[in-house]
Write a structure and sequence with these properties.
The chain has one domain: Beta-galactosidase, Chain A, domain 5 (Distorted Sandwich). The chain is built from no helices and 23 strands. The model has no long low-confidence stretch (mean pLDDT 96). The strands form five sheets. Strands 8-9-10-11-23-20-19-14-17 form a nine-stranded antiparallel β-sheet, with no helix packed on it. It has a six-stranded antiparallel β-sheet with strand order 13-22-21-18-15-16, with no helix packed on it. A four-stranded antiparallel β-sheet has the order 1-2-3-4, with no helix packed on it. By secondary structure, the protein is mostly beta strands.
Length: 288
């Protein structure tokens, strides 16, 4: 599999279009900012073990595969090992095509055919990712084009895996969080409790999380004090929901910008021929 390598100064990004349109590596000098994609997974055709992968046309889980949109129910099959509910859409499990690339930028695309009869996503769409690497930042524009002649449900998001060390800190502001059941399905929206409050920078290892947050201000700061390095994640207004995933015992955690709340893609509406798009910026800064 051919990687697309972007380089600008100390920043390096490797893209794996044929492995779910995923990022395989994102580093600043000798420091990985996101986990590296294992070599074997770069040839798997799937991006779920990547540094980051796209979430199209929905994020997180659809309970029992029952997608209800404008009064009609569509039945979706399971698509994720060990998970009883369809999760994270189609983009991560398909090859993307290279539209263009150079030393500092690239555009890749995935076109989805209508797949309702076999339990797949029942609407046609085209997903696009545009990457631009500058001296201090990586900018990703994620877009989804509705190829149907009628409205469809649609969501977009990104699933980055930040390197997690003993002193890693997170700061981000949210208004509400969804409590979940044993299968990580949302059951109640509550005000963010102190245990889940990252409005002030704090060590990410203090909690275990896999929850959707609402009222996100679109900004998160990840700090590695021992490295004297931080990443400021900034997104456009379409991303006002975030999933924070801090699994126990893993060398990574996730802050996922998403366009809809978990389990609620059926409440979205994208007109015929319309495009849903948003920008995600990873700004890399050194600390004194």
């Amino acid at each position: 599999m051919t990687l697309l390598s972007l380089r600008t100064g100390e920043l390096a990004v490797d893209l794996a279009p044929s492995a779910g349109g995923a990022i395989a590596r994102f580093a600043a000098g000798n420091h990985d900012l996101l986990r590296q994609m294992p070599e074997a997974d770069r040839h798997s055709g799937r991006g779920n073990n990547g540094s980051a992968y796209p979430l199209v046309p929905f994020s997180n889980r659809i309970k029992d595969g029952q997608l209800v949109f404008e009064g009609k129910t569509f039945h979706l099959k399971q698509n994720w090992p060990g998970v009883n509910h369809p999760m994270h859409g189609d983009g991560w499990s398909h090859a993307w095509q290279v539209v263009r690339s150079d030393a500092h930028s690239a555009e890749i695309a995935y076109e989805h055919a209508r797949d309702g009869e076999s339990g797949g996503w029942p609407f046609r769409y085209r997903a696009r990712q545009t990457y631009r690497l500058e001296a201090d930042r990586l900018t990703i524009v994620l877009a989804l084009d509705n190829l149907e002649d009628h409205a469809v449900p649609a969501g977009i998001g990104l699933h980055p895996f930040f390197v997690r060390e003993a002193d890693t800190e997170l700061q981000t502001r949210t208004e509400a969080v969804w409590r979940t059941d044993a299968e990580v399905l949302p059951i109640a929206r509550i005000v963010v409790p102190p245990a889940f409050d990252f409005s002030k920078s704090r060590n990410v290892n203090e909690v275990t999380l896999d929850n959707g947050f609402d009222g996100w201000d679109g900004r998160a700061t990840i700090r590695w004090p021992s490295r004297k390095l931080r990443v400021v994640l900034e997104t456009s207004v379409i991303f006002r929901h975030a999933v924070i995933y801090v699994p126990p015992g893993k060398p990574y955690f996730c802050v996922e910008p998403v366009s809809h709340a978990n389990g609620r893609v059926g409440r979205t509406h994208l007109d015929a021929g319309a495009t849903l798009s948003g920008e995600i910026v990873f700004r890399v800064e050194k600390e004194e």
